[in-house]
Design brief:
Number of strands: 4
Order of helices and strands: HEEEEH
Oligomer: single chain
Shape: elongated
Largest sheet: 4 strands, antiparallel
C-alpha cells in the first residue's frame, strides 16, 4: 500500500513538472512577441534582463534613443542620445 502512495506522488510530480515546463516555454515564446510590438511612436529596440527583477530597455521615441533600467516600479534613465540627423541640424545652425 505504501508503494502505491509513493507511485501516485511520483506521477503527480512528473505531471506538475511537465505542465510547468510547457507553461514557461509558452510564456517565453509569446512574451517576446508582445514586448517588441509597435506601440505608436515608441519602439522597443532591445531588452535584456540584468538580474531577477531588473531589466534594461533600449527604446526609441521621436528623435531620441534611451537606455532605461527598470526594477519593480522604479525606472532609471541611464542615458539618452539625440538622433544623429537632429544633432547635425543643431550644429549647422
Amino acid at each position: 500500500m505504501e508503494s502505491n502512495a509513493l507511485l501516485n506522488i511520483a506521477i503527480a510530480l512528473v505531471v506538475v513538472v511537465a505542465l510547468m515546463f510547457i507553461f514557461f516555454f509558452l510564456l517565453k515564446k509569446y512574451s517576446a512577441d508582445l514586448s517588441y510590438s509597435n506601440q505608436g511612436r515608441i519602439k522597443i529596440l532591445a531588452q535584456q534582463r540584468a538580474v531577477l527583477k531588473t531589466q534594461l530597455l533600449l527604446i526609441e521615441a521621436d528623435n531620441r534613443t534611451s537606455l532605461l533600467a527598470i526594477s519593480g516600479d522604479n525606472v532609471v534613465p541611464v542615458w539618452t542620445a539625440l538622433d544623429s540627423k537632429e544633432e547635425r541640424a543643431d550644429v549647422s545652425q
